[in-house]
């Protein structure tokens, strides 16, 4: 019995070592398609940050890849620096300094966007929105599905203004966040946008005009299972928490659970460019298109609405990070969506007027990298305006915590570990950008 216990302890220790992940800054001397080679040779490495112009990358690397990846870098005459070999410890250290908060009875209070709410806190807030005298007349909520771990997928609908009671808008806007578990800022910004539309619905001229023409549907938290796992187990977790064939076979390796929801949408899914068919990869596309509860729930909701009297007209997808305004297509470098020029010109004007030209606008496959099965490509097949915002921080001066080899922040790793104070800063910028974009459509009589 003692012998078996020792074996079990050793096995658990071995799995811990195997699953350990390191964050490295990697630089190569020449521009080349290094990422494609790395994805093929090391499918479990996760790209966290990059600067193609400087041929620099920040990777999350499994422990069992360290030796082979080091040889790969040296073979290409590259170099690397270890940012941290324990990102989880860094995150927990910063968490100890975070302040506790008490929810307000006012659902529009700033406390609901000054913190990263847990799933339960998010659900309590939705319930408060539905029952408060301040908001219940102006919103509706819909449960569109449940996750593998049986958490609710809740959409909040902000009702447009109408001369006639209960009249439905002809068109609608769809906004979501939290598709990737570790991108907490996208959830906070989605909450901020929801609150601002409700607070300014009568006093802001542009908001009033938008709500006269559109209803707004919001899914601030699309991946609650992954998000909760990110909060409690692995801060840099990306996928949902569905089991895979590999997780059943090798259930001690947590990386073999989960599907990347933004590689699982049913458009151009059957293509491995930027979407892995390896179940233990951070960008695993899943066994089939729309195999995941989260994705099929959204797909069915959007399709059903398109068959009703109300049509979705615009989709704003929130991610983090890099400060990019991304347009379809993501699946192709050579093809462009039919109205690309209009999307680009309209977006560029908003970036100039609202964002002080700090966002880069362009086709997603070119500004970042090609990938398939994405939500904006799917949305672009249903509605004329579909785009992704990659929020702060900007990809600049990799990694974020170093400057000229001098450490600027001992607790810094990568841009996913955003402080809650960034929610209002980014939220203000993105809310104003969405308002300006949609108002420009109304002003130009493009409906």
From TrEMBL:
Q: Name one Pfam family in it.
A: Peptidase_M14
Record-level GO cellular component terms: extracellular space
Question: What terms describe the molecular function in GO for this protein?
Answer: metallocarboxypeptidase activity; zinc ion binding
Which residues are named in the active-site annotation?
Answer: 390
Q: Which UniProt keywords apply?
A: Carboxypeptidase, Hydrolase, Metal-binding, Metalloprotease, Protease, Signal, Zinc
Q: Which PROSITE patterns match?
A: PEPTIDASE_M14
| Occurrences of domain Peptidase M14 (ranges) | 115-441
Q: Which GO terms describe its biological process?
A: proteolysis
Cofactor(s), by name: Zn(2+)
Would you indicate the residue range of the signal peptide? 1-20
Record flagged with keyword Signal = yes
Q: Does the keyword Zinc-finger apply?
A: no
**InterPro entries hit by this protein:** Peptidase_M14 (IPR000834)
Q: Which family does it belong to?
A: Belongs to the peptidase M14 family.
Matching entries from PANTHER family are given as: PROTEASE FAMILY M14 CARBOXYPEPTIDASE A,B, SLL0236 PROTEIN
Name by which UniProt lists this protein = Peptidase M14 domain-containing protein
């Amino acid at each position: 019995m003692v012998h078996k216990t020792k074996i079990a302890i050793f096995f658990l220790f071995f799995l811990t070592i195997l699953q350990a992940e390191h964050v490295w800054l990697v630089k190569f001397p020449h521009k080349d398609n290094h990422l494609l080679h790395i994805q093929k040779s090391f499918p479990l490495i996760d790209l966290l940050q990059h600067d193609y112009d400087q041929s620099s990358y920040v990777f999350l690397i499994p422990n069992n890849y360290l030796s082979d990846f080091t040889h790969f870098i040296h073979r290409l005459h590259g170099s690397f620096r270890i940012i941290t070999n324990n990102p989880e410890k860094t995150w927990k250290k910063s968490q100890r300094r975070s302040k506790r908060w008490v929810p307000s009875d006012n659902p529009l209070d700033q406390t609901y966007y000054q913190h990263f709410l847990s799933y339960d806190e998010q659900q309590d807030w939705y319930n408060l929105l539905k029952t408060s005298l301040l908001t219940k007349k102006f919103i509706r909520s819909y449960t569109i599905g449940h996750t593998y771990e049986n958490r609710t997928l809740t959409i909040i609908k902000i009702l447009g203004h109408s001369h006639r009671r209960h009249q439905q808008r002809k068109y609608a806007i769809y906004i979501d966040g939290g598709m990737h578990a570790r991108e907490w800022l996208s959830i906070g910004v989605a909450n901020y946008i929801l609150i601002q539309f409700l607070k300014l619905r009568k006093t802001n001229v542009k908001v009033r005009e938008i709500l006269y023409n559109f209803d707004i549907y919001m899914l601030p938290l699309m991946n609650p299972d992954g998000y909760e796992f990110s909060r409690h187990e692995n801060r840099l977790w990306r996928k949902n928490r569905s089991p895979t064939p590999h997780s059943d076979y090798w259930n001690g390796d947590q990386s073999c659970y989960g599907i990347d929801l933004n590689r699982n949408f049913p458009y151009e899914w059957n293509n491995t460019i930027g979407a892995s068919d390896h179940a233990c990869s951070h960008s695993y596309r899943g066994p089939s298109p729309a195999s995941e509860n989260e994705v099929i729930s959204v797909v069915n909701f959007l399709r059903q609405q398109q068959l009703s009297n109300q049509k979705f007209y615009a989709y704003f997808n929130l991610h983090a990070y890099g400060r990019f305004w991304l347009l379809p297509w993501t699946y192709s470098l050579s093809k462009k969506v039919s109205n690309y020029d209009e999307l680009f010109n309209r977006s560029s004007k908003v970036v100039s007027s609202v964002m002080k030209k700090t966002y880069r606008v362009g086709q997603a496959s070119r500004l970042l990298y090609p990938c398939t099965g994405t939500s904006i490509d799917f949305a672009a097949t249903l509605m004329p305006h579909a785009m992704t915002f990659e929020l702060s921080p900007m990809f600049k001066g990799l990694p974020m915590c170093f400057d000229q080899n001098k450490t600027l922040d001992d607790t810094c790793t990568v841009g996913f570990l955003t402080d809650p104070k960034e929610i209002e800063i980014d939220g203000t910028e993105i809310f104003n950008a969405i308002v300006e974009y949609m108002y420009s459509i109304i002003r130009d009589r493009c409906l």
